[in-house]
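Title: Comparing notes on inverse folding

I've been comparing how different people in this forum approach sequence design from structure. To keep things fair, I'm posting one structure and asking everyone to reply with a full sequence. Here's the target:
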């Protein structure tokens, strides 16, 4: 850890012990402090001196706590692409449920299979939603960075989406096993679809743990949404790689989609390294 980061860490610990300052408030203050420190560094001020001057300008922990106690910060509206993408996904999920109910009512699909298909489709699709949000996040950062509150809100939204994805995929995998027992005489056969479902479920659980423990930075969690989308592509359409289904001729297209995911992820990582470089 650099001398600058050690000074900032000590400042964070001091603020953490001040009543009236929430974690979000401290994060907002740190963002302002870093901006001031960066401005001073660009003028040639030594790092330690830059931190001291920036802290002095920002105010003492006691004064900051009094200000935040008197005037609550205005809430930051959620990042609008997240509202649009999640709203569209919710609408499509309702349409899927309505379609499956209609098929059950007209006798073209049994209830067990309909619930299995609906749960898996919704669970898998939420990984695509996370990937779309990651793409929007990367495009946004080519113009300007999100506010810290918006970045944290996006990470929290992904946590909720991943929880739902894990729950619905788990239900879908379980009901698929029940259906296989009733119609095929076995619970699990380790075919491409079943293995893919287990992998996607395992990834969702790992993502929930990662986001819950906040291992790393929010930027990492957002970009990992692209990785989850790759797993879903392989689980849903990966049988093409083995030539076991009728859409096997589309294996090349699947490979191109996965390569596109990788390229977008690398762009996002480059943006994150650039952002961390400015903060160092």
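Reply #1:
Here's my take.
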């Amino acid at each position: 850890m650099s001398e600058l980061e050690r000074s900032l860490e000590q400042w964070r610990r001091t603020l953490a012990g001040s009543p009236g300052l929430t974690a979000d408030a401290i994060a907002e203050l740190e963002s302002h402090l870093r901006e001031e420190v960066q401005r001073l560094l660009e003028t040639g001020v030594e790092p330690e001196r830059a931190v001291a001057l920036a802290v002095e300008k920002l105010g003492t922990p006691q004064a900051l706590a009094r200000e935040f106690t008197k005037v609550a910060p205005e809430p930051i509206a959620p990042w609008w692409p997240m509202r649009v993408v999640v709203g569209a996904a919710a609408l499509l999920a309702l349409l899927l449920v309505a379609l499956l109910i209609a098929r059950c009512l007209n006798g073209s699909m049994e209830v067990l299979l309909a619930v299995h298909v609906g749960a898996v489709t919704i669970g898998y699709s939420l990984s695509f939603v996370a990937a779309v949000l990651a793409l929007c996040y990367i495009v946004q950062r080519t113009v300007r960075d999100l506010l810290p509150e918006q970045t944290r809100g996006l990470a929290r939204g992904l946590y909720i989406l991943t929880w739902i994805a894990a729950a619905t995929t788990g239900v879908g995998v379980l009901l698929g096993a029940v259906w296989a027992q009733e119609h095929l005489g076995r619970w699990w056969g380790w075919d491409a679809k079943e293995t893919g479902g287990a992998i996607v479920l395992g990834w969702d659980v790992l993502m929930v743990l990662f986001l819950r423990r906040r291992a790393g930075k929010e930027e990492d969690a957002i970009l990992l949404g692209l990785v989850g989308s790759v797993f879903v592509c392989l689980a849903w359409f990966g049988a093409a790689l083995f030539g076991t289904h009728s859409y096997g001729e589309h294996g090349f297209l699947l490979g191109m989609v996965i390569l596109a995911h990788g390229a977008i992820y690398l762009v996002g990582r480059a943006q994150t390294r650039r952002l961390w470089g400015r903060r160092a």
